[in-house]
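Comment thread on ticket #2218

A.B. wrote:
> Attaching the input chain for the structure job we discussed in standup.
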Amino acid sequence: MNFTAVTHGNELIGFECKIGTNLFFFGTKESSFDNLGEYYPALQFHEIKQVHGDMVILARSPGPATDADAHWTPQLNHAPVIATADCIPVLLSHPDFVCSIHAGWRGIQNEIVLKTIRFLLNKFNKIKPTIALFGPHIHKNSFEVDLGLAQVFRQLQSSYGEKNPLIVEESCIANKAHIDLGLILRCQLQLAGLLPDQIFEFSADTKLDVRFASFRREKSQASRNFSFVARLRS
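C.D. wrote:
> Ran it. Output below, let me know if you need it in another format.
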């Protein structure tokens, strides 16, 4: 999967990839709703008020942003946008729609990706191929959690019949563990019906890579990484 750097003025605002008529974009901390509109003037961007839940809605604007963590559109040149700072941006393309999903650890626990794909494939043609790309997020070695949360993810992993011991591992620090959100996300994508060759990752650890916003690194000073997907008019 080849990504091209996108600069606006002198700033690196993200990385884009085109697959057929689908445009995928993962933003850096220099991305914003405004500079996306300036760089991609042919696109109509949509935003949501992210709440770490499992609600998926039809992308719409103008008007106040609606509470949700996934939004989709069947319209060409329309781009649902999500904002992240350690959470996983998940972008879906299908011949009939595109969808952007905000998947933090709460979203993964609530199975927002699994629920969203099942909802959309029930609504549209299941036979047509769906492609999923997920982007920069906090990686396992940077995502240290309490043992209580680790146990929640062990139980989630077990419910999928997944036995990979690398998804959750105890830390060298007492009463701490590390969770690989990317691996559990792949499990959910495959449970939703995607094949391994339909799943791609733009890999970067947001906590370690200073090009990207990270709540773990920057705390309340963290900006956001804006990402989107759109089906382009030919």
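A.B. wrote:
> Thanks. Noting for the ticket: The CA atoms of residues 22 and 231 lie 5 Å apart.
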